[in-house]
Design a protein that fits this description.
By secondary structure, the chain is α/β, with parallel strands linked by helices. Helix content is 27%, strand content 24%. InterPro entries: ADH-like_C, ADH-like_N, ADH_Zn_CS, GroES-like_sf, NAD(P)-bd_dom_sf, Zn_alcohol_dh.
Length: 370
């Protein structure tokens, strides 16, 4: 097959500046276990906005192709790339999602078995597009799956825009729930933040059999969607101050607080607030904090309440697979499609990002070929 020479891609050259559409080289030689993929769509994540703004606390090697929640069809395969990461056969035309890399041979991969912390990790959207393999971002007509990346074949029953959710947002939620452990039928679960991750977390808690789910967030349209995903009680941060929010949570939990809590808001103050709200002996999972913000807490609360506080970063390829399986099974029970707030072409990337920045979108999807 004759490979395309270039790919139209949305390139960030300076933080906070307009993004240009550039012709980026397509690798003409594929390494063993690598894939060239025609990207069907890429959903837009809050992390994309933060990277574009320059507010992430992660290293970014500009210039980069933005986007990391992509799904695409295989157009070329390197040697020994005919299986996905769970043993399913792959061929030209199959749809896949793919992960950041892990080396499999560093301390964190082998001893700790936490590939998301891999010492040699390569992450899509963070590597420069000026060096091979160039196509390391999702807002592009083509993407390159490097040999060390996990890859999962998308079930036929899952449409592209929902598969893209599994490439970041949903796999992060699945990883967080795996670390917290079983949601018991006696548990009240608190979810802080009603963006895409928080809404997906509400759905997982509901399916997991939580006794009650409390969601804290805004605006009202997202709180309504939180109820559709399974929240029993919603609390608006626009209408209630921290003291009022805590009072409602205590009332809803018989004065004890929630047994499990998940922070997906991204606001540093939410962490301190969550520590005050959760029950004695609770498990508190922090996922949304990737910025440089700081907050003052009282550490004795963790000790006196015997809390288990966790952090969860990203997800490994098992979480991509679990996210796809969850959507395939529950897409008729949960309103996943309502998370998709709009569709954009590649040339409208700046409009889409600015609308995300101003909270006019929940989870828009970019189609590079439109």
């Amino acid at each position: 097959m004759q490979l395309p020479k270039t790919s139209q891609s949305a390139v960030v050259r300076e933080f906070g500046k307009e993004i240009g559409i550039e012709e980026v080289p397509v690798p003409q030689q594929l390494e063993p276990r690598s894939l060239l993929v025609q990207i069907d769509c890429c959903s837009i994540c809050g992390t994309d906005v933060h990277l574009w703004e320059g507010t992430l606390s992660l290293k970014v090697d500009l210039p980069v192709i933005l986007g990391h929640e992509m799904v695409g069809r295989i157009v070329a395969m390197g040697p020994n790339a005919d299986q996905d990461s769970v043993g399913q056969s792959l061929q030209i035309g199959d749809r896949i999602i793919w992960s950041h890399t892990s080396c499999g041979s560093c301390y964190y991969c082998t001893v700790e078995r936490q590939p998301t912390l891999c010492h040699h990790r390569r992450a899509y959207m963070y590597e420069t597009m000026e060096k091979p393999p160039y196509l390391m971002g999702g807002f592009s007509q083509y993407g390159y799956v490097v040999p060390e990346s996990g890859r999962i074949k998308v079930p036929d029953s899952v449409e592209d825009k929902l598969a893209s959710l599994s490439s970041c947002a949903f796999r992060s939620v699945i990883n967080a729930f795996d670390q917290v452990g079983t949601i018991r039928p006696t548990d009240t679960v608190l979810v802080q933040g009603t963006g895409p991750l928080g809404l997906l977390a509400i759905g997982v808690a509901k399916v997991s059999g939580a006794k009650k789910i409390i969601a804290i967030g805004a605006p009202d349209s997202r709180l309504k969607l939180a109820e559709e995903f399974g929240a029993d009680c919603v609390i608006s941060v626009d209408q209630h101050d921290p003291a009022a929010r805590k009072a409602i949570v205590m009332e809803e939990t018989g004065g004890r607080g929630p047994a499990k809590a998940f922070e997906f808001s991204g606001h540093p103050g939410a962490f301190a607030e969550g520590l005050e709200m959760v029950a004695k002996g609770a498990r508190y999972m922090v996922v949304g904090q990737l910025g440089e913000g700081k907050v003052t807490i009282q550490p004795s609360m963790i000790t006196k309440k015997n809390l288990k506080v966790f952090g969860s970063f990203s997800g490994d390829i098992s979480h991509y697979w679990k996210a796809l399986q969850f959507i395939a099974k529950h897409q008729r029970d949960l309103p996943f499609s309502k998370l998709i707030s709009n569709e954009y072409s590649l040339k409208d990337v700046n409009v889409a990002l600015k609308r995300m920045q101003s909270f006019q979108e929940i989870k828009p999807v970019l189609y590079p070929w439109k």
